[in-house]
Design a protein that fits this description.
255 residues; alpha/beta; 32% helix; 22% strand; globular; disordered C terminus
Length: 255
């Protein structure tokens, strides 16, 4: 059977939320929650964290989370690609390190899409969901996607797309949950970022700008992406509601 590994890219230097992977949530660092969800997925054989920061690596060691050190990279997928070169993996699932409620079923869904696709395989399988909150439509942190008739991606943008000139559309959000083959990850790093990717800051545009197919997989979104400290407060409330326990200080690495 093909071996499937989840890689969670984690960096310290987020502009809006420095040190986010180690931010406390329900008594454990944010990245720990993501790793736990990966381990619950049925298709995942191993889950590792990829980071270039020693503080995150120390915390991984304290929490017994497998990790790989990488160099600095412009995108999470570039970091995942470096990490994947040192993994025994046929399918690599890029799971965002700020999605503490990512669905194990969604992780399985994107992996299964590549595992069951006939040749030629799409470059990547990318999860998406319908946007239900109007505020998310205009939120630049929520990447919107439009689809071709065959279910592959037509375009991505941080702006609301499509523009509702005629009928009111259903807005779709990509979740940043990607499954790659080892070969397609190498292809990604070999391609030069195009003007759309550089303008929007959306790495999946790299494939579209170079005419590669991105399969979109509809999944259920179960939680909150933590982009800011305010998002963390909302996530903490959700954890407390689910567990009945208040948020506690997280395990922190030595300074």
């Amino acid at each position: 059977m093909p071996r499937v590994v989840a890689v969670i890219p984690c960096r310290w230097g987020s502009t809006r939320f420095p040190g986010k992977p180690l931010a406390p949530l329900g008594g454990m660092p944010l990245m720990w929650h993501v790793h736990q969800r990966c381990q619950q997925a049925q298709r995942i054989d191993e889950a590792v964290i990829a980071t270039d920061d020693e503080r995150i690596a120390v915390a991984c060691a304290q929490l017994d989370i497998p990790h790989r050190m990488t160099g600095e990279h412009p995108t999470g997928t570039d970091r995942v690609a470096e990490c994947a070169e040192r993994l025994d993996a046929d399918i690599i699932v890029n799971v965002q390190g700020d999605e503490p409620f990512v669905s194990p079923t969604a992780i399985d869904a994107v992996a299964t899409t590549l595992l069951t696709s006939a040749a030629p395989l799409p470059a990547v399988a990318n999860a998406y969901t319908e946007i239900e909150q109007p505020a998310a439509v205009v939120d630049h942190n929520a990447v919107k996607v439009t689809l071709r008739r065959d279910g592959t991606a037509l375009s991505f943008s941080r702006q609301p797309i499509p523009y509702p000139k005629g009928v009111h559309p259903a807005y779709l959000r990509q979740l940043g949950l990607y499954a790659f083959t080892a070969e397609s990850l190498r292809t990604f790093t070999a391609l030069r970022p195009g003007p759309l990717e550089q303008t929007e800051g959306i790495e999946m545009l790299r494939f579209l700008e170079h005419s590669h197919s991105v399969a979109m997989v509809r999944v259920k979104d179960e939680g909150i992406a933590v982009d800011t400290p305010a998002d963390l407060e909302r996530a903490a409330s959700l954890v407390a509601a689910r567990t009945g326990t208040p948020d506690l200080p997280a395990v922190r690495p030595p300074r």
